[in-house]
Structure formats: C-alpha cells, structure tokens
Amino acid sequence: MENEGIARRHTIKLTRLLYICMLAILNAILVSVIAKVMVMLINIVTGLSFHGVVTTGEIAPAGNHLGLWVILIPVIGGVLVGIMARFGSMAIRGHGIPEAMEQVLTNQSKIPPIVTLLKPLSAAISIGTGGPFGAEGPIISAGGAFGSLIGQILKISGYERKILLTAGATAGMAAIFGCPVAAIMLAIELLLFEFSPRSIIPVALACITGAAGHLLFFGSQPMFAMPSIATPGALQLIIYSLVGAFVGILSVGTTKIVYAVEDAFEKLPVHWMWWPAIGGLAVGIIGFFAPSTMGVGYDNIRGILSGNLSIRILLVFCFLKFISWAISLGSGTSGGTLAPLFTIGGAMGALTALGVNYIFPSLQLSIPAAALIGMAAMFSGASRALLTSVIFALETTQEPHLLLPLMGGCAAAYFVSFVMMKSTIMTEKIARRGIDAPESYVPDILNNYKVKDVLKEEVNVLSTDSTIGEARKFIMEGEGTPTPSAFAVVDETGQLFGLIDVKEIFNTLHDEEKTLGKIAKTSPTIAYEDETLKAVTDKMLNSQLEVLPIVDKENPEQLVGVLTYRDIIEAYEIRDKETQKERAIYIKKKGIRLIIRGRKLMGM
Questions:
Q1: Are 480 and 442 in contact (CB under 8 A)?
Q2: How many CA atoms lie within 13 Å of 553's alpha carbon, on the beta-carbon side?
Q3: Quick check: helix, strand or coil at residue 172?
Q4: pLDDT by residue (tens digit) across 251-262?
Q5: Cis ω for the linkage preceding 482 (within 30 of 0)
Q6: Contacts 24+ apart (CB under 8 A), 321-325
Q7: What is the pLDDT of residues 125-144, one digit of tens each?
Q8: Are strands 591-594 and 460-463 parallel, antiparallel or unpaired?
Q9: At what angle do helices 367-383 and 386-397 cross, to 10 degrees?
C-alpha cells in the first residue's frame, strides 16, 4: 500500500512537471516575440529621437546632426521613465535581474502584472533616447514578469511560479543573444539557487525555445563575430588569467561606484521621479562629446572584439561609457547591465593587452582574445556568475578554442571579487534591504545522510502491556524530556506494534488501567536505516507524522530505532563538523530503551 502511494505521488509529480514544461515553452514563445518587438521599439524611438526617421532596422544615436540639442533627448526620456515609474509601477526602475532575484527570494515570485507592459516600454524609451544600456536586461525582466503573471493567473504553487519566472527571464536572454546554455547557467547561478530536474528541465526547454526565436527573428550568425584567433600557448594562458584578475579588480570598483552613485541620488532634495531626468542630463552631455556611448552598443562590442579600434576609442568606452552608464543606472532609470559591462570589460581587456604587447613585444597577445576575456571577466567579477560568463562568451562568438583562457580569466576575476567584495552588482541592492541571496548551491544535505547516521543510541518506546496511567506518570516526571508528539509501541518480544499519540495518552476518556495495546494504532508508515533523510522526511510529511519507526529491512516487524524531526535537524550539525572525529560524536550506536516495565533492549 505504501508503494502504491509512492507510485501515485511520483505520477502526480511527473504530470505537474509536464504541465510546467508546457507553460514554460509557451511563455518562451511569447518572450521571443516580445524580444523582437522591443528591439524594434528601441530602433523606432532611436530613429525618431536622433534622426527624425521611422525605422525598425538597427540604428544608433551616433551620426546625428542635432548639435547641442542632443543633450535634451536623454533628459526627455528620463522624464518619461520617471512618470511611468511614479504613476505606473516603481518595479520598472533598475536593471532587471536584482528585481527578479528579490521577487524569487521574498515574494513567492509574484511580479506586479503591470510590469509586464511597462518594463519593456520604459526600457525602449530609456534606451531609444540614448540610455547607455543593452536590451537584454529589460527583456530578462519582462520575461520573468510574463512567467510570474502566468503563474498568478493559473494559481500554481510558489515553487512552480519561481520556475516560470526564471524560465521567462532566461528565455529572454536566449532570444536576444542566442545563448541557451549560458541562459540556463544564469538561471542556476542567479535566479533558481538550486539544481533539480523539476526546475532545470522547464528552464532548459524555455531557453532552447528562446534560442529558436533568436534564429527566427535575428538570424543564425554569431551575436559577436570575431576574427580568426590562434589557440594560445601556455605562457599566454597565464597572461590572460592575469588580465582576468586585473579586470576583476576593476569589476569590484565598478560595482562600488555604481552603488555610490545610487547613494548620492538618494541624498538629492528632489523626488525620485526626477532622478532619471538628471541621469539623462549626464548621458546627454557625455553623448554630445562621445555619441558612441549612447544607446544599446552591441556594435561597440563587435568593434572591440574585432581588435581594430584605436586606443582613444577604447578609452572612451572604458571611462566615458562607464561614467554615463553608472550615473544613468544609479538614477533608477530602466535599463540593463550586461551590455555595458561587456563593453567596459572588453575595452579594458583590449587596452591591457596593448600595454602588455608594448612592454613585452615577444608575447604578442591577441587583442580580440584579450578583449573577449576582459568582457567575460568583467561580468564574472561583477556578478560572480562564473560559468554563465564563460559559456556566454563561447556561445556568442563561437570560438570554442578560447575556452581555457576564458576559464582562467573568469576564475581569476571571480576570485578577486570574492576576496574584495561582500555582495555583487546583482545582490547589493537586495542585500541593502535585508535580503540575503545564497552564496553557494549545494545538494539538499538530507540526501547526503542516511537514517543510520542520526539514530540515537537510546530511544524511549512504550510497551503494549503498560497502562495509560503508567505512561502518563512517566511523561509527567519529565524523564523523557523533550517529549515527542508520539511514541513507538512494541509488544513483549520487542517487535513493533504501532504508534501512540501523546494526546491519546492524556485523553480523559481513557481509563488509566487500560493498556496501551488497546489504543495504539498500527503504523502504516515505516522506514529503514539505509534510507536517506530526504526520503524519510517526505514520508513524515505525507503521513503527517513527527515520529517514524525505523525497522529492520529483513524483518520489518523488528524495531531498531525511532526517528524524530529533531534527529533530522541534527544532520545540519553533522554537516558543519570539519573532521571525521567531530562527526563521530553525532553518529551513535543504535538501541532501544523500553520504559515503564524496566526492560532495556540494546543492539536491536
């Protein structure tokens, strides 16, 4: 009967998984369409704002003939975004991923439905009027909002809603960049905080669907095509790793400056609705002198990775683009972080390689390769999404032979960031609100321990021929403190008879002379010593038991111990012990102490 229940629950889980997978795929299709529409909207707004034309094709703010009037365009965009945030939803402010993380961690993945419309619209206005952001952040946010909205409409569980939010967000990333594997890794490292079939399968299907949308709407060519690069040698691998470490230091400074700017805006004596306009003023002024700092900037990344840009242009991207982006993002406007980080990091990587080649001409570092490593290392250090950074660089350039230098550079940046900075550019905002994002992702420790690891040396059980009065006296004397909610009951041979609830023992309707054998209930649920604590916990939850009899596998009637929820919690204490000697304190010999009748049964 127990096996039938397990099989039924397994079938229900599979059915729910298929249902969530279907919803994730449908959501990814919608998000792919939204990605295309949003890119078109950005181009329309850009064309109208800077060139006075209506076009859905790729167009940049650079090359405009507005003169000083160009300064006002980002200001107007900032005013519109501020109004939308004030009278629409404050959730459209920011760059998307931290807001999605916050909803996952604190609000059961519930994003206000209005964000689904306002986030892409506000981002299109912000970026189209010169905001130095990429389209990917708002798409990630909008995709997550769509997933959350579907989950709220269909009244699914909070866990399933988290999966749909994550699937929508990462499908948006895959639709923009054509990088399904990197999008899956982003889900694991920044949104899901876990790795399980229930979550990864729907997310993977959504990312594949988003990547298919990229092929349909944006083509099959690499997002950031690069010139042919020779496979680096051993010495070059070391230098590239040092380049990554250097960019990692810069990523820490970048993160701190962004939030310092945000703090400065908090101190302004004006309503936050006007902050994006102030940020837009800075964008416009910098854009007047360096038009290439405005807008999405994917062409800038391609130029950096080509290795053909001058030192002057690289310096513009390193410093002026950074200043423009930091002020605009700190103002709370709607935009993303990925493209700006890639631009800044790529330019810094290229400049570093130029400097190394000038000092050590014999090394001959590849400028495009160093730019790619700088790009990925900047994101790795700022977000600590190590695997996402590496795989993203590989997928968007289709340069698999650069795997080793990318791993070295990104790992070095990650290490530097971990040492120098407590939070990341993705978690600092929510950390300031008292929300802790997980720093490590490990399997459920209850899967790592078996029942035999936590069974106590002695446990109290009751005898079938003991009276209710004797049981009451024992419990009230406090010898068994803390008192469990139920006791296992054994017969005169020590074999398991059943369970008895403490409430039943103190039921005033029962005669004190009645024996426990007449009121104890046979236990429909049992467990074995070699089962994992996770499996046993599921049994306890499904049976609504706080005490579970542990029996011999060869002889299911022979009781070998009793497991309580307190014993399961002890698994966390075991995990925290660093040596086998310390762990041995908690792994006990098993035995049973039969109370009331004074017998003590050991080694059963």
A1: no
A2: 6
A3: helix
A4: 999 999 988 998
A5: yes
A6: 321/132, 321/290, 321/292, 321/293, 321/297, 321/347, 322/254, 323/282, 323/286, 324/132, 324/282, 324/283, 324/286, 324/287, 324/293, 324/294, 325/132, 325/133
A7: 888 999 888 877 778 877 87
A8: parallel
A9: 150
